[in-house]
# Entry
Amino acid sequence: MTTTAQLSDQQQQALQQLLSVADRTDPLLDGLEVYIVGGAVRDALLNLAAGDRDWVVVGALPEDLAQRGFIPVGGDFPVFLHPRTKEEFALARTERKSGKGYKGFTFYTGVDVSLADDLKRRDLTVNALAYSLDGRLCDPLGGWADIQQRCLRHIGAAFSEDPVRLLRLARFAARFHDFSIAAETLALARDLVRLGEVDALVPERVWQEFAKGLLTAAPGRMLQVLQDTEALAHIAPSLLYTPALDSVLAWASKQNLPLSSRYALLCSQSPELDSIAKALCSPREAKDMARLLQLMLSSSAFSLGAGPEQYLELFEQCDALRRPDRFEQLLHAAQGLITLDEKTWMGRLEAIRQVDATAIVQKYKNQGQHIKAALRLARLQRLGSV
# Structure
């Protein structure tokens, strides 16, 4: 089905902007049946800024693209880089389940694979839209109708064969938080868990989707979907999720906190940080922020009657003198859970950073054992005067 009906002028213009003059006149594309597919088309119809363009080539062989100068980079199936733009062009393909997990598929590419065949293997109807080089919107699976109805819907029963599709469903639910999820799609997502497909996910792949979900406006929606489908207990069994985290993560999104801070808030109620980090393959920066945020939240420095000793201990534990920017980031994240005066705390940190450590070292150059104590005393005195 090819349609431009019911599109607003703004949507039609957004689609047209997916293609530049250079695309339309590119001699390397001349004579090829090529389409922009997936997210860029979806986002244009939603009047959102388009991200990277994904291209599909229909009715061609690998040698056809190679002869035109495209650079082969595909592993399991033929993918080529455009020699000038470096964008990816994949040959249209079908797939068949041949094993466990998200890598257990056999792919077929050939000149007989149609655009509709390629789109049918995708996860959700809203991601199965295409835009041709001559300006046609191709919608064989009803993606435009589901965009209008604000519904995330699977394409076929094969949805329950790939566990990554459950992660993507949860992530898209977070990004498009005003979209509902079709009941039959949720049922298939639960099948992925029941059949053990989710257990075949590797942590690196989980983190890719998890990180994208945390950076949306409503990360809690991703967690809700994973919880409702019982996938969260398999993906990150040590993560303690409660609905209260939804508002905290929504606050973090409004504050535009970086990924590491959002991850730290996600883990703020979970004692087994190492286990979570292993399950999600969290990067070191995120793991450090999670550990330090829990340390900050449990510090006596924020209790009634706290003074210079407690303040300095927290600064030292957080390595704040060497990493003041990270400490400020920690303070900002902590405000999602406790009340604190970030300006006052940064003023205290700046006060002890003004202590002339070089002068103290020089003063006690023949009495090295006194340097640490003298430096600490000077910092405590500064904190007492702030």
Notes: The mean pLDDT is 91. DSSP finds 20 helices and eleven strands in the chain.
